[in-house]
Amino acid sequence: MRFKFLSVFFVVIGFIANAQTPEQKLELKDILESVAENLPDDYDITELIDILNRYKKHPINLNKTIPEELKTLIFLSPLQISNFFIRIKESGNLADVLELQTIDGFDTKTVQSLLPFVTLNGNTEYEKLTWGNLLNQGENDLMIRVARILEKQKGFRDLPGNRYMGSQERFQTRYRYNYGTIVSAAITLDKDAGEKFIGKPFDFYSGNITFAKLGKIKKLVVGDFTMQFGQGLTLWSGFSFGKGPDVTSVAKKDLGLRPYNSTNEYSFFRGISSTINLYKNLDFTPFVSFRKLDASQDLDVNGNLVQSTINQTGLHRTPAEISNDSSLSQQVYGGVLQYSKDEFVVGGIAYQNRYKSSFITQTALYDQFSFTGKSLTNFGLYYNYTYKNIYFYGEGSKSMPGGSAYLNGLLISLSPTVSAAITYRNYAKNYHNFFNQAVSESSEPVNEKAWYAGLNINPNKRWAFSFYGDYFQFPWLKFRVDAPSAGYEILSQVVYTPNKIFKMLVRFKTENKQQNTDLDHPIKFIDDVKKEGYRIESNWHANQKWQFQHRIEISQYQKGEAKAEFGYLIYQDIDYSPLFSKITGNLRIAYFNTPSYNSRIYAYEDDVLYSFAFGMYSGKGFRTYLNLKYNLAKKLNIWTRYAVFYYKDVKTVGTYLDEIEGNKKSEIKIQLRYQF
């Protein structure tokens, strides 16, 4: 389930390359933070870091690139990508990267973001597929990580009944092999805290091998893979963005078939798929997947196994979770047919899900339109088209059994400094899809109608303004909402960057939804729930070694006529990253005070490479962490992280099996990386 946060959490990759300039580190950090606002708390964005890390080593040749390659750069909008290829088509190759500024929609900030990842001189044709090249010129990357919460949680004690059956440590090992862009291989092994280690060293195993640019076969993946097409309404697995300060992010950039390299144990396919060029501009991507999913099953009146939902956490710690492990067989097969010519793309999707046992509805009234049965078929049609300074996009989808869903939108470049986005979405209450990550306000894109409009204004190098509004309706009931409801979300942001070493941000965000009243009243009704957030942040790069970031954030929560809650967070980040130094690191010192969970505040936290973390600041207390990286040798690095929460006026931390006696929760993490 995708849980959307009010605020931002972020994965830091400031240690990706020692050769990065301080300005590039800051820019990369800003890029990721600006788009990571709506990620779920259990999502692994390793794939995104892998992409940017690889482009740092092997920049994209802009004169030989293709749309699919530029789509992987998260800071480029679909309209910018389309305008880039129109420029290449009309005027030929670029002679200087700075010529990008002459392309409609490419402001100075966009060009600066691109510079670390692109070139005009690289020879992309060196990749000749021979055994000698595979062995001698391939790149290998091995990472081993261990992490542990130092205090003993309740679930690790010798309790009767439900408890964690494994050790407190979390282990992860990942291996990556790349030979240019035509061959790659990956193996990922993962064990969560509480899962058994003896007898089964790792709980999650993932791997794949990928071939690309093999004549008519554009790409072939055997093993674990993701499918991302259209606007995510019919077929989208793996990594996805939603609404964010960059208003153009509502238009998804579909990446098609890709190998899956993350540790999220649900959102991927396992089998084989290939993108094949049938004729000139016509591609076909068939796929087949066989998986075992986690589900809590019961017997119906006829003695048949049934389930109402799929467990997406991937956790197998307690006897109950272990009994649900791999209990449901899933088969998925289908294909995508896509036609692309110049500025026009249209595609059709058709696939079927088959399950060994049937889904049933739950007893709650709001759930009566959920999927039932063993088989689900999904059809979809998507398009995008660029006409002058307007990018049109959309997708329609139909589930059988079930209803339909569609969205349409456009991005407009009103001037070189102003861009706008408008989107309308309509998802039926009985629309069913297990691989749906379209833009939505709900945790699942279903039972929703909405209008979205946003504006980006960048009048000069110093100032950047962002605004968006999203008005949504839920025609049917929802969890804790026993009537049709509606709401809105508004964000406004100003960024001031007077020079390369200083940046200031001011943001306001308000959200209004409806929920069942908490009042003891004979007639039940729904109350308005209002959440507001205010943020002021500054970032100062003092010199080549030291960087300082300060943030003040205020949250407000009010339900109905009840008294409003006010919470706040204040933190200071200090980053020490001298160029070419063997040791780098960063530190946070934070104080937070929120009356309850309702007024909690989320904020990004620096972490070790290929890991991500967010802090949920709830209650009253202090938060601090320290990250260190040391270069043991030219290709051997070690990271360490220590993080701790100190809570005031509490006797325990956490709930249920995660409960800790005392007022402290701390974690240590060690990671080793070897490149060869």
Quick summary:
The chain has 676 residues and is mostly beta strands. It has helices spanning 22-35, 46-57, 67-70, 78-91, 108-114, 131-136, 319-324, and strands at residues 60-61, 118-119, 139-149, 170-179, 183-191, 204-214, 217-228, 256-259, 269-279, 282-293, 298-299, 305-307, 328-341, 344-359, 373-387, 390-400, 404-415, 418-427, 448-457, 463-474, 485-499, 502-516, 526-541, 546-559, 565-576, 583-593, 601-605, 613-617, 620-633, 636-647, 652-653, 660-661, 664-675.
SSE diagram, text form:
Elements: H1 22-35, H2 46-57, E1 60-61, H3 67-70, H4 78-91, H5 108-114, E2 118-119, H6 131-136, E3 139-149, E4 170-179, E5 183-191, E6 204-214, E7 217-228, E8 256-259, E9 269-279, E10 282-293, E11 298-299, E12 305-307, H7 319-324, E13 328-341, E14 344-359, E15 373-387, E16 390-400, E17 404-415, E18 418-427, E19 448-457, E20 463-474, E21 485-499, E22 502-516, E23 526-541, E24 546-559, E25 565-576, E26 583-593, E27 601-605, E28 613-617, E29 620-633, E30 636-647, E31 652-653, E32 660-661, E33 664-675
Parallel strand pairs: 1-2, 12-14
Antiparallel strand pairs: 3-4, 3-33, 4-5, 5-6, 6-7, 7-8, 7-9, 9-10, 10-13, 11-12, 13-14, 14-15, 15-16, 16-17, 17-18, 18-19, 19-20, 20-21, 21-22, 22-23, 23-24, 24-25, 25-26, 26-29, 27-28, 29-30, 30-33, 31-32
Description:
- This protein has 676 residues and is mostly beta strands.
- 9% of the residues lie in helices and 48% in strands.
- The chain has helices at 22-35, 46-57, 67-70, 78-91, 108-114, 131-136, 319-324, and strands spanning 60-61, 118-119, 139-149, 170-179, 183-191, 204-214, 217-228, 256-259, 269-279, 282-293, 298-299, 305-307, 328-341, 344-359, 373-387, 390-400, 404-415, 418-427, 448-457, 463-474, 485-499, 502-516, 526-541, 546-559, 565-576, 583-593, 601-605, 613-617, 620-633, 636-647, 652-653, 660-661, 664-675.
- The protein is globular and about 70 Å long.
- The two termini are 38 Å apart.
- The relative contact order is 0.12.
